[in-house]
Write a structure and sequence with these properties.
Helices cover about 30% and strands about 15% of the residues. It is built from six helices and seven strands; from the N terminus they run ααββββαβαβαβα. The protein has helices at about 30-35, 40-45, 120-140, 155-165, 185-195, 210-215; strands at about 70, 75-85, 95-100, 110-115, 145-150, 170-175, 200. Helix 4 links the parallel strand 5 and strand 6 (about 170-175). Helix 3 packs across helix 4 (about 155-165). The longest helix has 19 residues, at about 120-140. The two termini are about 10 Å apart. About 20% of the residues are buried.
């Protein structure tokens, strides 16, 4: 379906034959694939993405994501985190923008996730839209700090300048993850919080929770 295209087509030159990321847009258009996703993440990943994984997940299991609420506490502390993608090509990893909250008791809430393959100006617009949503909903006194993963290099400096200009009026900070080890190591604390039941997903119909869970349970082999 285009979500796991890069690096997973063999032989790789056949990826050029995909249409908008789809192997078979006539027999398996996105409308059909979205319907098949209701069969469950395990079946969908193995049958339609050809990326089977351990039933129920590995480091992240489906049972970790059963805590649901309609809204997070109003006075919670909030943060927006952005993982910028390096490519806009179909099948490449997507830019991810996530809004999270933590209440006074230490419980965490995933409020909203937005992902896409955007050009830099579109990506910056989407980040600002997430920040503006939080400010409008919770007011300037409770709006989140925006953290953006740093990519390093001279091109990152230019991208950072453009990003901060697009977010004038908001607090923006850069996060250097290179010194923090592998993605598996960095994921361990998050997995522990989920397994302990300290994290709640905000199920208000504004974002794709099932896609979010699928990325977790196919980690680290998935896109």
């Amino acid at each position: 379906d285009g979500a796991f295209l890069t690096g997973n087509v063999s032989p790789p030159e056949l990826a050029r034959r995909y249409v908008d990321g789809l192997m078979d847009p006539k027999r398996l258009p996105r409308s059909v694939l979205n319907e098949r996703r209701t069969d469950g993440a395990y079946i969908y990943s193995g049958q339609y993405l050809q990326m089977p994984y351990i039933s129920g997940g590995g480091m992240f299991k489906e049972t970790f994501f059963l805590n649901r609420r309609k809204a997070a506490p109003y006075h919670a502390q909030r943060v927006i985190y952005v993982d910028r993608a390096s490519s806009t090509n179909v099948g490449a990893c997507r830019t991810s923008i996530i809004l999270m909250a933590k209440d006074a008791d230490g419980n965490g809430y995933v409020e909203r996730v937005n992902k896409g393959r955007w050009e830099p100006y579109e990506r910056n617009r989407e980040i600002r839209a997430m920040a503006q949503y939080a400010r409008t909903r919770y007011g300037p006194q409770h709006e989140p700090v925006i953290w953006v993963e740093g990519e390093g290099g001279s091109t990152d400096k230019d991208a950072w300048m453009l990003l901060t200009k697009s977010l004038v009026g908001f607090t923006v900070k850069r996060h250097n993850v290179a010194r923090e080890g592998s993605k598996e190591r960095r994921a361990e604390p998050w997995a522990c919080q989920l397994e302990a039941g300290n994290i709640w997903l905000i199920e208000d119909g504004s974002w794709d929770i099932e896609d979010y869970i699928l990325e977790h349970i196919s980690f680290p082999t998935g896109s």
